[in-house]
């Protein structure tokens, strides 16, 4: 049995580190987008219910499971889970708790590096006098590694490596380094958030302009906080709410287990779990909803926000909006906003390194330094393809399979282990051991029945989407390497044709009828309107790519529109899935070698 070579310096530091693990980029970037895309106030009720019946129970399970495994000298999920069930399979289920963290850190640090870059550009005045379209174009250029916004070759790669090096250095200091960052980062994050939230609350109609005369920050707030009870019967909204709970609380990853494994046997997990969970919810529901959507609605209008909601919206809009505050305030606002995102990101990404480090120290006696830098090397190896091939969809494959599917699978399996194999009676005792608060008894039955049922429903209902992702059902250009290119869907249904409006040897501009969502103030509902949309395809003459269509042609999805040498995105998506599979197999092999080592030493 290995000894605990590391420990938390204080309860405050632990709670802040746990909250920092949960409070991440999703609180400020993903939550507002999910709320907007799922009807604003229609999203809030399912979201809060999922938090109470799935999020809180999973926090109880993971905190108590981690502490239980920690008393046997285990600090990551393979052998934490192994202590709770007799079957050898549980240590391999625990592979998810290392795999997910490395895979997510690989691309999460890339988003984190965007915030570093945007702090720099805010300070040097890059966004001054840029239009909203120019700011959006800046983001698109930044994620294309062939372009540079600073004159530094491969700027996105450089910022990514710097960000990863910073994470790795802090990790090499162990829990004390993480605790120090949490004690500094979390208060700064909340301070920056409150400053920007106050601006979101007070902006009102002062940001309206000739271009957006109906811009009103309060429209954004009303949209987010007006409950829509008909959403309770909409499975799509419930799935989105459940997915956001996973993303925001960092449950199903293995980081909570690892942090809790360093607790003493009588240390409270119930109050710690509730404290960290509700601190995360305060940051997400209160601060997260008061910044991006109200400020964007205050300058661009609620309809624009509804039609353009996306993960990158904050990077594509906020620098432009800050410029409306004047030269000096825009710099401070940019530093506050992107600094907030940076601290939210790094407190989460640091947590992702601890399961690998804990496992390698427990099983192979690796030092903190060796564990941290090996984690950095793995993250870099996995992450560089997401940086280089971001626009080809490889990043999205990581986010979907490692950042979504893996979390649901692991959370469901660990809940079954805790409730039915370890046993709910023992589990309930473990949760309440040393607790400073008395938990309501009905939570025992929520953990036993409601949580696994909800997780099982999310899991089963997601399977058709998994199949579609593997089959690349979202594209008509399925061959990796092709001598022809086919028109994709012009709008979401894929049933409408488009007219060729302009054509050159390397570019085609289509016009087609599309639908957009707008907010009807009279009914306080989102409605759909029809409008004329455009889509442009560009081709590369150096690859012998030539257009085949003529002005006035009516083109349907799947029609051939160009010939030449094409490497389609399906190749990069497949590459992403294979890299993830190789990582999972690699960690499984490492766990098997650890098992053989334990057997040889008489520890198994």
UniProtKB/TrEMBL annotation:
<feature type="transmembrane region" description="Helical">
    <location>
        <begin position="12"/>
        <end position="29"/>
    </location>
</feature>
<feature type="transmembrane region" description="Helical">
    <location>
        <begin position="184"/>
        <end position="202"/>
    </location>
</feature>
<feature type="transmembrane region" description="Helical">
    <location>
        <begin position="237"/>
        <end position="262"/>
    </location>
</feature>
<feature type="transmembrane region" description="Helical">
    <location>
        <begin position="442"/>
        <end position="460"/>
    </location>
</feature>
<dbReference type="InterPro" id="IPR000175">
    <property type="entry name" value="Na/ntran_symport"/>
</dbReference>
<protein>
    <submittedName>
        <fullName>Sodium-dependent transporter</fullName>
    </submittedName>
</protein>
<keyword id="KW-0472">Membrane</keyword>
<feature type="transmembrane region" description="Helical">
    <location>
        <begin position="400"/>
        <end position="422"/>
    </location>
</feature>
<feature type="transmembrane region" description="Helical">
    <location>
        <begin position="89"/>
        <end position="108"/>
    </location>
</feature>
<keyword id="KW-1133">Transmembrane helix</keyword>
<feature type="transmembrane region" description="Helical">
    <location>
        <begin position="574"/>
        <end position="595"/>
    </location>
</feature>
<keyword id="KW-0812">Transmembrane</keyword>
<keyword id="KW-0813">Transport</keyword>
<dbReference type="InterPro" id="IPR037272">
    <property type="entry name" value="SNS_sf"/>
</dbReference>
<dbReference type="Pfam" id="PF00209">
    <property type="entry name" value="SNF"/>
</dbReference>
<feature type="transmembrane region" description="Helical">
    <location>
        <begin position="41"/>
        <end position="61"/>
    </location>
</feature>
<feature type="transmembrane region" description="Helical">
    <location>
        <begin position="282"/>
        <end position="302"/>
    </location>
</feature>
<feature type="transmembrane region" description="Helical">
    <location>
        <begin position="152"/>
        <end position="172"/>
    </location>
</feature>
<feature type="transmembrane region" description="Helical">
    <location>
        <begin position="372"/>
        <end position="394"/>
    </location>
</feature>
<feature type="transmembrane region" description="Helical">
    <location>
        <begin position="328"/>
        <end position="351"/>
    </location>
</feature>
């Amino acid at each position: 049995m290995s000894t605990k070579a590391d420990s938390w310096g204080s309860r405050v530091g632990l709670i802040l580190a746990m909250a920092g693990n949960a409070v991440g980029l999703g609180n400020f970037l993903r939550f507002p987008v999910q709320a907007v895309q799922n009807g604003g106030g229609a999203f809030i009720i399912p979201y809060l219910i999922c938090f109470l019946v799935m999020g809180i129970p999973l926090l109880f399970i993971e905190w108590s499971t981690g502490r239980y495994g920690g008393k046997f000298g285990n600090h990551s999920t393979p052998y934490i889970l192994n202590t709770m069930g007799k079957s050898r399979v549980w240590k391999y289920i625990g592979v998810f708790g290392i795999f997910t963290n490395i895979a997510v850190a690989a691309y999460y640090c890339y988003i984190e590096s965007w915030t570093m870059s945007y702090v720099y550009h805010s300070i040097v005045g890059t966004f001054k006098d840029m239009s909203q379209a120019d700011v959006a174009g800046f983001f698109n250029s930044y994620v294309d590694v062939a372009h540079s916004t600073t004159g530094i070759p491969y700027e996105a790669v450089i910022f990514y490596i710097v960000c990863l090096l910073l994470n790795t250095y802090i990790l090499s200091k162990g829990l004390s380094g993480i605790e120090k960052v949490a004690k500094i980062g979390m208060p700064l994050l909340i301070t920056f958030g409150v400053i920007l939230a106050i601006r979101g609350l007070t902006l009102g109609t002062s940001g309206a302009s000739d271009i957006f005369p109906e811009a009103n920050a309060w429209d954004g707030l009303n949209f987010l906080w007006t409950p829509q009870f008909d959403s309770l019967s909409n499975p799509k909204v419930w799935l989105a709410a459940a997915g956001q709970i996973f993303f925001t609380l960092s449950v199903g990853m293995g980081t909570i287990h690892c942090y809790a494994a360093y607790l003493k046997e009588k240390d409270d997990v119930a109050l710690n779990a509730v404290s960290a969970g509700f601190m995360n919810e305060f940051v997400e529901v209160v601060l997260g909803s008061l910044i991006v959507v109200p400020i964007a609605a205050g300058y661009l209008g609620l309809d624009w926000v509804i039609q353009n909601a996306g993960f990158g919206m904050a990077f594509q809009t906020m620098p432009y909006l800050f410029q409306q505050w004047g030269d000096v305030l825009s710099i401070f606002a940019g530093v506050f906003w992107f600094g907030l995102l940076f601290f939210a990101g790094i407190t989460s990404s640091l947590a992702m390194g601890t399961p690998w480090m804990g496992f390698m120290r427990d099983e192979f006696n690796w030092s903190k330094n060796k564990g941290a830098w090996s984690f950095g090397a793995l993250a870099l190896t996995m992450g560089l393809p997401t940086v280089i091939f971001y626009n080809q969809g490889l990043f999205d494959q990581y986010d979907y399979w490692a950042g979504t599917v893996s979390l649901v699978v692991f959370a469901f399996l660990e809940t079954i282990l805790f409730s039915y194999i370890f046993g709910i009676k023992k589990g309930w005792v473990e949760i309440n051991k040393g607790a400073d608060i008395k938990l309501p008894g009905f939570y025992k039955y929520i953990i036993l029945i409601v949580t696994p049922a909800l997780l099982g429903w999310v899991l089963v209902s997601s399977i058709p989407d998994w199949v579609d992702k593997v089959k690349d059902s979202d594209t008509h250009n399925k061959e990796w390497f092709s001598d022809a290119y086919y028109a994709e869907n012009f709008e979401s249904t894929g049933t409408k044709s488009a007219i060729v409006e302009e054509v050159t040897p390397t570019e085609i501009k289509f016009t087609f009828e599309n639908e957009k969502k707008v907010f009807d103030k009279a009914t306080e509902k989102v409605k759909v309107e029809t409008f004329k949309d455009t889509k442009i395809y560009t081709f590369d003459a150096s690859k012998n790519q030539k257009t085949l269509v003529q002005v006035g042609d009516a083109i349907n999805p799947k029609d051939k529109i160009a010939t030449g040498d094409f490497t389609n995105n399906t190749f990069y998506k497949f590459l992403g899935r294979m890299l993830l599979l190789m990582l999972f197999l690699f960690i499984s092999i490492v766990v098997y070698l650890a098992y053989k080592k334990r057997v040889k030493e008489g520890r198994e």
